[in-house]
Amino acid sequence: MDSHHQEEEHHKENGDSITHNNNNNNNDNHAPKKPKLSQWITESEIRQEFSHHDPRIARINNGSFGSCPRSVLSAQTEWQLRFLRQPDAFYFNHLQKGILESRKLIKDLINADDVEEVSIVDNATTATAIVLQQIGWAYTEGRFQKGDSTVMLHYAYGAVKKSIQAYVSRAGGQVIEVHLPFPVNSNEEIIVEFRKALEKGKSNGGKVRLAVIDHITSMPSVVIPVKDLVKICREEGVDQVFVDAAHAIGNVHLDMKEIGADFYTSNLHKWFFCPPSIAFLYCRKSPLPSDLHHPVVSHEYGNGLAVESAWIGTRDYSSQLVVPSVLEFINRFEGGIEGIMERNHKAVVEMGEMLAKAWGTHLGSPSSMCPSMAMVGLPPCLGISREADCARLRVHLRDNFGIEVPIYFQETIEEGELKGEACISGYARISHQVYNTLDDYCRFRDAINQLVKDGFTCQLLYSN
């Protein structure tokens, strides 16, 4: 048995995570300096930080809601109590200073030029509304013409698609979807399809006013070659580029100067350990006057997006104030956030390959296109034939096996059926975060194997 597998067995026996003994000295040059620690966080301390998790559940779905450690939750409670003790003093003396401090830290983490380029909002859905709202106004005010195009990926998040429908389609804009392959084998496959969509938008003298690009698609989960696509947009004269990167910060390396988009948003409560809900919206500085406004109009309207977003009425702002505490937690790990990302990526690929081997399937993309999530094919004999099957199977795994994992439906490929091959129609999206253990994935493996052994099919879930 090689040393790596010996290490895995040791962790399995002790119920520890498989990811934290791999040292990583790859630091982010743009992140705040990390304190010198005599000892990095231990496995038992990690368990304590996430002891509020339900111990009965194999939680391999960090991608949906993230998870906040106990020390950060304590810091959030302190902010909440400061407000409740003396709301007026909190509002006038502390709130804006605290949000500005969080914005400064985010600015350094993403390598933006200026803190004024960074606003804090509730989530990526709110950020999307801010960007698309000004696109809708451009149509209604005659700056864009009816029939001008917005290009988005076919796998765009559902709420983003609805926002495009609400703000762009309703104002008269044409929407062109980039149909991406899945499973996907290379970045080039994505680039080719993206170019086709831009060509369609520019046909007959048309103009592409906005491109909406995911950095990491949600379902199925794939890392998109975002820098390449933004560069193509510039070459093809696309007016504005908005990157929906809900899963990105804490999952992949971010550099706003390298990416070059006009707008970029990411949630900090998914992979950056913040409590819900907090996201940043980066808006690249422009010599033109800004027409970006928070969709909730309050007293700060007209004072710039960052100021507008920092006060949208009386509410709980504590999740936006704990970014310094989150960085303290992250910097207890060797390599900081870069080290966490590298270990999570390595672990999720290892676990995905282990599951695929056990089930005789494959991953949905090369490992280089997996962030801290991976798509793993489920055995075809489970009979996943529609979206509803995925939802019911997910509930079945939760209720009967204590496993929380999203499942994606992919229509089967006709060529495979013609060759007599059993086509994979269901993929599980597994996540890996610092709290996960090898046992979480072994439970999932064994549950699916038990269903196969029992002759289970999804059709049985409709019998009651």
Query: How far apart are the termini?
Result: 47 Å
Helix segment count?
16
Strand content: 5-15%
Overall pLDDT level: 91
CA radius of gyration is: 23 Å
Give the overall silhouette: globular
CATH architecture of the largest domain: 3-Layer(aba) Sandwich
**CATH level 3 topology of the largest domain:** Aspartate Aminotransferase, domain 2
The H-level CATH homologous superfamily of the largest domain, spelled out, is Type I PLP-dependent aspartate aminotransferase-like (Major domain)
Strand order in the largest sheet: 2-8-7-6-5-3-4
- Major pleated sheet: 7 strands, mixed
The tally of structural domains comes to 2
Q: Count the beta strands.
A: 12
Structural class, please?
alpha/beta
Percent helix, as a range, is 40-55%
Low confidence ranges: 1-32, 414-420
Pfam family, one: Aminotran_5
Region (Disordered): 1-36
InterPro entries: Aminotrans_V_dom (IPR000192), PyrdxlP-dep_Trfase (IPR015424), PyrdxlP-dep_Trfase_major (IPR015421)
Biased composition (Basic and acidic residues): 1-15
Would you summarize the structure shown here?
With 464 residues, this protein is an alpha/beta fold. The protein has helices at residues 3-14, 43-49, 62-65, 70-85, 87-110, 124-140, 158-167, 187-202, 226-235, 256-259, 305-310, 323-330, 336-359, 387-401, 414-418, 438-453; strands at 58-59, 118-121, 149-153, 174-178, 208-214, 240-244, 263-267, 279-283, 373-377, 403-404, 407-409, 426-431. It has two domains: 3-28 and 45-49 and 335-462, Aspartate Aminotransferase, domain 1; 77-326, Aspartate Aminotransferase, domain 2 (3-Layer(aba) Sandwich), CATH 3.40.640.
